[in-house]
Amino acid sequence: MSDLYARHKAVLPDWLALYYQDPLEITHGEGRHVWDADGNKYLDFFGGILTTMTAHALPEVTKAVSEQAGRIIHSSTLYLNRPMVELAERIAQLSGIPDARVFFTTSGTEANDTALLLATAHRRSNQILAMRNSYHGRSFSAVGITGNKGWSPTSLSPLQTLYVHGGVRTRGPYAGLPDAEFIAACVEDLRDLLGHVRPPAALIAEPVQGVGGFTIPPDGLYAAFREVLDEHGILWIADEVQTGWGRTGEHFWGWQAHDAAGPPDMLTFAKGIGNGMSIGGVVARAEIMNCLDSNSISTFGGSPVTMAAGLANLAYLLEHDLQGNARRVGGLLIERLRAIAAQVDGVREVRGRGLMIGVELVKPGTDEAHPEGAAAVLEAAREEGLLIGKGGGHDTSVLRIAPPLSLTVAEAEEGAAILDRALRCTR
Ligand code: PMP
């Protein structure tokens, strides 16, 4: 055990889980690569979701951050803040939400917490609909609505939550049904649930579940839900913390795969937009955002340094069409991984949208989740210089691939070749 790891374990909580038997200390990065404290270089196929949406050490972001830090860092929630107004304008316009208002936080958790605060205040209800297998953060209320029980350490909650089927396409009672029948069954289930309760305030859902293992519902599911929600006056909150900013390739936001539903009533974002700087936030129609009766601020939400990072990062993303890059390079990578999966035992499914790709593992010859296999593939890939993530329900048997959006075709090929070997050597 490294000295730093021993010190980590002695002073930090046990539930702050680290990847790898011998955890990594990452000291620097560039583009799609990071280096550890021993000087080993890794191709980073997971950092794009962790925070670094665009590229590590992107000069445009570094310059914007250092220039702003050189001017002032003071978090000026009580004064006008030019970078905050500018980034809010950009995000409001990109969100698709009419008459949009933006509130900045420092994390996805706090963004979802704020969305729950707004929804419950607006609808005068403390009941929430959330998806089974979902993840929405680690605050008391976000944990309370999180459906993935591996990430929900307490069953106590200030909110009453009802869980809805549909986020996971390939497991559960409706697995195997064609898309239209799957959607109809989930809608029926939702109607049945709502028949027995007072109307909840909102449905919160990740358009593609992130921590839950990059599970992709059929397109249009949330449009079908929306019809039912509208009948009951229930809001729809899209948690775009992982799916936003073009990550899914075809769409800028994950909700757009359900387009007929139109924009959600609220969307929450975080992670990538600051390219590593802590930015989260909520976008809501003015009528919802402005429903609070008293003041509410976030001291560090909208700090000018993080806003400068967000503005530079967003400009880079749009100028270089990284959404298009995610579609093209992600598409190639999905194809390549499907070809590899066909050659090895124990890959149940390769699924993905753009650069959000899941490889679900099962024990060879069975349909049983294979968490040990996923952990072994992570270790084997690391040995060869590739970092990937993992996720899924209780069983954490899905490899998660979410590189920075600037990934090149050559890097995609290199990573796929390493995964090919890693998948084989752990069988
Ligand atoms: N929502 C989703 C969909 C997430 O994936 C996460 C983080 N994994 C969060 C919310 C919480 O974000 P944060 O860790 O920034 O609080």
Automatic annotation (TrEMBL):
<dbReference type="Pfam" id="PF00202">
    <property type="entry name" value="Aminotran_3"/>
</dbReference>
<comment type="similarity">
    <text>Belongs to the class-III pyridoxal-phosphate-dependent aminotransferase family.</text>
</comment>
<protein>
    <recommendedName>
        <fullName>alanine--glyoxylate transaminase</fullName>
        <ecNumber>2.6.1.44</ecNumber>
    </recommendedName>
</protein>
<dbReference type="InterPro" id="IPR005814">
    <property type="entry name" value="Aminotrans_3"/>
</dbReference>
<keyword id="KW-0808">Transferase</keyword>
<dbReference type="GO" id="GO:0008483">
    <property type="term" value="F:transaminase activity"/>
</dbReference>
<dbReference type="InterPro" id="IPR015421">
    <property type="entry name" value="PyrdxlP-dep_Trfase_major"/>
</dbReference>
<dbReference type="InterPro" id="IPR015422">
    <property type="entry name" value="PyrdxlP-dep_Trfase_small"/>
</dbReference>
<keyword id="KW-0663">Pyridoxal phosphate</keyword>
<dbReference type="InterPro" id="IPR015424">
    <property type="entry name" value="PyrdxlP-dep_Trfase"/>
</dbReference>
<comment type="subunit">
    <text>Homotetramer.</text>
</comment>
<keyword id="KW-0032">Aminotransferase</keyword>
